[in-house]
Amino acid sequence: MSALFRVTSRAVALQRSLVANQAATLRACRSIKTSPKKDETIAAPASVTTEDFANPSPKNWMSYGFDYKDQAEDRKATKATFFVTVTLCLVWGTFYWSYLPDTQIRDWAQREGFLELRRREQAGVDLVSPDYVDPASISLPSDEDLVNTEIII
């Protein structure tokens, strides 16, 4: 119990010291004064024409890589590309792929297999016939042919 009390009192003391440090930092930040910079002057652009006002270029425009000269064309191409890739390809492509018909007839084959197993169980027959392949149609090598051959089963 005393150990719990010591840990709690240390945590409270640590929290109080952190709050005191933050308050001291805030007070120090509030007392900083700045003076205007020497080079801070207002200057008009060299030549301003009516075309500059008609077609202002954004100050810090970065292209998405579709058009490096026109911001509107760049944004339009970006939105069109992402619409096609995300909406058409990913969303509708996934929807189409998930609802495709079973072209390899896997569902039918599995269903037929279960029906055949149920029929054989009810008839009391072996589930898989030992004579599935006719033994007369299989040609095995003779013992003389297999003298030095290692057979791994």
UniProtKB/TrEMBL annotation:
Segments traversing the membrane: 80-99
Cell location: Mitochondrion inner membrane
Database matches in InterPro entries: NADH_UbQ_OxRdtase_ESSS_su
Keywords attached to this entry: Electron transport, Membrane, Mitochondrion, Mitochondrion inner membrane, Respiratory chain, Transit peptide, Transmembrane, Transmembrane helix, Transport
UniProt topology in membrane: Single-pass membrane protein
A Pfam short name: ESSS
Listed GO CC annotations: mitochondrial inner membrane; respiratory chain complex I
Keyword Zinc attached: no
Main subcellular localisation: mitochondrion
Subunit: Complex I is composed of 45 different subunits. Interacts with BCAP31.
Purpose: Accessory subunit of the mitochondrial membrane respiratory chain NADH dehydrogenase (Complex I), that is believed not to be involved in catalysis. Complex I functions in the transfer of electrons from NADH to the respiratory chain. The immediate electron acceptor for the enzyme is believed to be ubiquinone.
Protein family (similarity comment): Belongs to the complex I NDUFB11 subunit family.
Protein name per UniProt: NADH dehydrogenase [ubiquinone] 1 beta subcomplex subunit 11, mitochondrial
Organism: Drosophila persimilis (Fruit fly)
